[in-house]
Write a structure and sequence with these properties.
eight-stranded mixed sheet, 24% helix, 139 residues
Length: 139
């Protein structure tokens, strides 16, 4: 069965991990799977390993920016995000996260080596079978 979760990402600041679903949620297993996929995505970004980051996306994943498709598939996603994996690229920190039904949300900010912060972009992720299939971001 196809698992489909949407994750809202607002960019703000802190170091909280992505959290799972509430224990009384009847879809807890599916929500936990989506939370693990998003946590792997955040961890891969933090690791500075572009290949690991790409591995969190499905091979045919789509990235939309402000309503426009800007990348489809690993090759285009790699080209889009490569700048985030060079020396001096910003780090990310998660402010808050949680789930409400199949909705998983995050708050994130980018922190540059000089200490300056960039806030706020919003993102929505669709996760299917443990991989990000669509990323919608505004910023």
């Amino acid at each position: 069965m196809r698992l489909r979760n949407i994750i809202f990402t607002a960019a703000i600041l802190t170091a909280s991990p992505v959290v799972g679903a509430e224990e009384d949620n009847p879809e807890n297993g599916q929500d936990q799977s989506a939370a693990r996929a998003v946590q792997a995505h955040v961890d891969a970004y933090r690791s500075g390993d572009l290949g690991r980051f790409l591995g969190t996306f499905a091979p045919d994943a789509i990235v939309n920016l402000n309503g426009v498709t800007v990348a489809t598939g690993h090759q285009q996603i790699s080209a889009l995000y490569r700048v985030n994996f060079v020396q001096g690229a910003p780090a990310i920190r998660v402010d808050s996260s949680g789930m409400n039904g199949d909705l998983l949300f995050l708050s994130i900010a980018y922190i540059f080596p000089d200490g300056s912060e960039v806030c706020c972009s919003y993102s929505e992720y669709e996760v299917t079978n443990g991989k990000i299939t669509r990323l919608y971001t505004q910023g």
